[in-house]
Amino acid sequence: MNAPVSISPDVRNAAPTPEDLTITVRDERFNRDSTPRRWWAGDAFGTAWHNALSATFPRGEAFFIEAVKAHRDGADPKLEAEIRAFVKQEINHTREHIAFNRLAEDHGYDIKGIDKRVAELLALTKDRPAIANLAVTMALEHYTAMMAAEFLANPQHFADSDPEVRDMWRWHAVEEIEHKGVAFDTWNHATKDWSDGKRWRVRSIVMLSVTVRFFKNRWADSLALLKQDGITGWKARWGLFKYLTVSPGVVRRIFPAWLAYFKPGFHPWDHDDRALINVYEGEFSDALMPAE
270: which of 102, 235, 243, 255 lies 20 to 30 Å off by Cα? Predict the structure, then answer.
């Protein structure tokens, strides 16, 4: 059941999030049967990269939820409603990636090592100030939004992939675009007593740190999965590099959006890409497992 979350039109200071934004909780189910082992067009590199991403989502999105919820007190009604919608969407994403990860394991991929690494990294955050976890969440939400927009804008990414897996990633991408400003607006709310300069310095430093860890870990995770497909050494590294930077080249394509994050006064909704959502809504198949 798709449920638009009602968001009041109260004006929030210094937040260009569209006043008419609708965050819809699309309670869809995917991948409950079988999916090809190399579901990304039979290609091991695309399959490994997305499997590695998916393996991080269940724990990662639970972390995002808690980081945002920790700062909702005192939020204005509009932001409060957006946080509720964000939480509902992320809960559904977690459920669907658990199902997807289970299928990957059924096809012989061992992703327990990835999950263990994520758990160990998240354990280190428990003694950190809550605002630090929100800053990390804001940076990673920018990553998901960048990739989401690229996946929807450029059909090449999933053109020849398994149809149901493609639908899952597109569904996830749409909702990431819809709530891409929530963590950022929560950050602005939580740091309302900070100077603009301090906000910019902290979020910029955190983004640089997150970027190094994100690519270091996803690269290692993808190579580990490629090794399970019998692809190792220079062939694995060159093939993965080419996939990420040449064709379809998601890392190369999102670089301008990544760079924009460091602009003073940046906000995720500086670029309104809701047209991508409208295209998805017009094309999306109804042949999905109904919500229980």
Answer: 243
- Whether 65 maps to a domain, the answer reads yes
The structure's pTM equals 0.89
Give me the residue label for tokens 């920790």.
70
Does residue 275 sit within a domain?
Answer: no
Strand partners, 25: 3
> How does pLDDT run across 67-109, given as a tens digit for each residue?
999 999 999 999 999 999 999 999 999 999 999 999 889 888 9
Number of domains composing the chain: 1
Kindly state whether residue 22 falls inside one of the protein's structural domains.
no
